[in-house]
């Protein structure tokens, strides 16, 4: 973890606009337009898939994920901007309007009515029990289209390839290399393996090795969940839909994947980061407690405490970070929090990202804000901030635009106690210290 | 939630010993001794079950839950005290030594080597996919023994009946009434329903109604988890074994069970309480956000925000509470945290509960300590503190024994900012404020 307070780089001036990178945006074609990207031998299956759309909509409506009245208003209010979900020129206009210089592009532009669902349900709902043939075919169709989509402005987009990782390992590894060569920069795996091998299984080692060799971060994204257990209770779904994408984190960690593959980076997208401090505290205590003078550890596959793997290899695409989460950033690690706008989803900050940033970051130190809003994401996803700087100067909000105080010494002082306690279980403090000191 | 700072009762003096109630203890017979409590027609099945002990031990050892060297030392160091797991006289001696006036009694005295496992695996591992016949037979065997066990000193023990709730509803309801009449005071249901109906299902309404009518709190307890997904990685198990018993909480809440059964009380045992503030914040925001001026809510089965159900009907048997958790007690609700010693499990505070309490509670206000160490549990489980008071005067540690400061005004002042922010999303504070003000 780079500590922005210890950096030797000259600090950027208060007047310098932010280089904003959204670590969580979405793009996808209107579903029927995926046909030319799909191998012809799957066209009949594709017709069947299209025929099931109405039934899937009804399921979403029953659970309350889809709301008819809201959908009608959302589409009429945002008709033009929503075309940015698949129209590159329109998209740049929307990103510029939000002050976003670069973005990470996940599937499923339309989260309201699923009109841009990738073929065979391999978008955000990508699941471990997907039919292997159709799953790879659907993923490749989206990946091919996405490579085209980002090719016009590669310095501004990092396309996330869909990777049905529970399938045949050789084909999965081949798809990683194909995606990399086509210009995509990251990999999304299912949150849930369902009836397939859990992610601690050694069968996946060649996959993690290939991802590391290609410098493609591996991600999960919220969406999939065991919906058949929820009846029609939306609250149950929402209460645990962020747990399932986080779950692979501790499967990878405790099975030594991060130790065996130090070049692998793993991220959890659009699942918040409020759960991370407790998890880290819990895992660190477990590991450090087991190493207190005992010779044999049940955690022999790890060579260092969990927080070291977190800071070296794990991150969260925390999307529209909440104030409560920002208060916990010294436990999470400032550099592990990657903000995102979630464009063009309604639960995100678009089209009012500038106002939203001011309401959320106004009393956060500028140096830390720069890391969370873009610089940390640029490092994880390989964006060239030198190339983005001229654009950021044109579109990026400044600290003053976010209502931040020019007296940054006072702002940093107000957080000093919280920063000093940090991860209290490692710093000799037995309580967390959260919030500003007035 | 009773606010101990607003109470009109005269405060107990600083010199008054604590009435300590452990909300999480364990008792169980050496497995083979359950035979006389088991219906004779299940004796052949019982022999088969006993024959599988070695295989089950090997499984536990493989996952690292069981450690041979640790087990040997534990049993030789604590041979006498561990007999308190099933010997009432020895048990009282151990409780007295720890300063514990009363206790809630879960199954499985032996967490190290499973020598006191209830028949057919219905102890802490009670699971929704248990064979219904054997499950009820095993539960009744334990419940019968437990009723005998607590009958000698009913004012000091609340026995928790095992309830295989996913079975036939009429039999489940009958067992609730039978357990109540036999002198037991609470009900443990499986954390996981596995392939049976999730707990939002209306089929369970007669069960919740019977539990409420009998004033028997319903509990889950950590233990069960989908172990077949973990390989031999203990860290994975430990990282999520507390999530599974917490999960029923949001299934019950969002499906309106607490609204339909206002007399039902539900608790989660030995799963910590560090996860509760985030969950509550998340659920409150979801509910309150959906009610912002809109006519229709997807949460129509609730009539009030989640925190009101929490304070009215939900609690945590937080066992050996961590300092980190105590720092969050104004978000959780002081009255919702029920301490426990976990006697006679090695991960608990026995036999050094007095020392452990001093290390953990020394700077917590005395009035709040009284609630968390006993008074809140007494209300939930129906202990008569008037009857316990003379005993507590003899065995209970005093605030001075816990190293607490006689200047309680200063102690309360040090927590004032944190208490004032409380559940910050309800009090107009946008950050949590945790920890003492120096």
TrEMBL record, chains A, B:
GO terms for biological process: secondary metabolic process. One of its GO terms (molecular function) is hydrolase activity. GO terms for cellular component: cytoplasm. InterPro entries: ACMSD, Amidohydro-rel, Metal_Hydrolase. Keywords: Hydrolase, Lyase. Pfam families: Amidohydro_2. Residues 93-383 form the Amidohydrolase-related domain. Coiled coil: none annotated. PANTHER family: 2-AMINO-3-CARBOXYLMUCONATE-6-SEMIALDEHYDE DECARBOXYLASE, ISO-OROTATE DECARBOXYLASE (EUROFUNG). This is Amidohydrolase.
